[in-house]
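Posting this for the archive.
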Amino acid sequence: MAAQRPQLKRRYSRDDPRGRFPRVKGFPGVECNRLGVFWRPLIDMTESPYVAVLLREIIQVADWLADDDGHWSWFAMIGVPGLRRQVVLHAGLEEFDCRRPDELAEGLRSARWQCLVDLLGRFSCLADGTRALLVFHLAQLSFTESVFALTGVVEPNGDPERDRYAYEVARVHSRYPDHRDRSLSAFDALSRSCPDPVLALASAAQGAGHSIRGVSDIALAAEFATRGMRIISKGLPDDWHSDLVRSRFHRAVALLRVAQRDPSGMRSELSESMRFGQAVLAAGLAGPDQLVATENWLVLVQTKIKSVLKRRGDETDAEVAKLSAALAALDPYCVEARSIAGDGYAAAGDYAEAAEQYRCAGQLGTAIGAVAWFRAGQCHDLLGDRAAAINAMGRCLELDASAIEPREYIREHSRIGLAERTPAVVRTGVA
């Protein structure tokens, strides 16, 4: 068991609940833009070698839609609503800011972007399978409101394409608190009557997870979990898709066990989830399927670190640090992965490495990056490096000007005289 250590404040307070993301001017255009290199698929669906797993998936789904060959997506991650807007504002690329894909100026559209606009223009004529993929793609790009404009809640009817369409629409609705009843209704219907046991189990997993995250209804989550176990008991196909969905199901049940204050049950379910995740990794997949396996394992490592933060078991500091290093290596250009890796190092007491991970996250911008800079500042303060702490708090304010604690920290500590600053701190203070 780790010794008691100072706890970082998870988030800062805001004087504007929505946050204030400064609009910057005069930055280089998208071809030479620093943030553009790391977010290019989200900005205009152009490939870049230095992007997060989620953004690699955007390119893959865009190419599937262009092929129009009945592709099916097993990717899980979808974008945070409003993420794209945060990116383009922080990058000084306001010309790319748009509420709908068709609002982007024609001169800024890549071929993939134009394909998306064309498909949206004939959405009513598309097959349900293509609609399902298109809805997921819009969510990847954080255009969730475009999904609501295109379609309401879709009722499953037992047809494979229709059921998958209903599932993807429900997942988008689950991203908004006031829409979760609609998503839970669809997951309920699919988990009860979908002929495809794998999709039925996936729906049970979604229902259990969102019952906890969205409405904190433990009884409903337990009902979804029981239903999922019943589906498993009746048998699933012997393939990697079944292992993938079982991994996701046990991860959702682990979240239920946390809500039930059952830490041993949570660890047991998470171990099962990782066991099936390892089976998917070992299946010898290639191409997009291998990307699915990587994504699933990435989410599992994130979940494992979060579980340690939530309720520390017998994990040693070295084990927690090893998990954090693995996560940073799995998705080095992901703002969320780097931030969670920082959390893990902080939990292990390595504040210097935590600050480095938070710095890497903060340099990628967005609201998550702003919080990462805030945590980096706290790490530097604990290490006695006040100048570096001031710099990190200032970088936080550059991404979110509504942050209260970073502003107060700078106001208080920037007045301290040079006599208190050692030469070593002066040399290393500015990132």
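The first helix runs from residue 34 to 44. Residues 177 and 269 are 26 Å apart (CA to CA).
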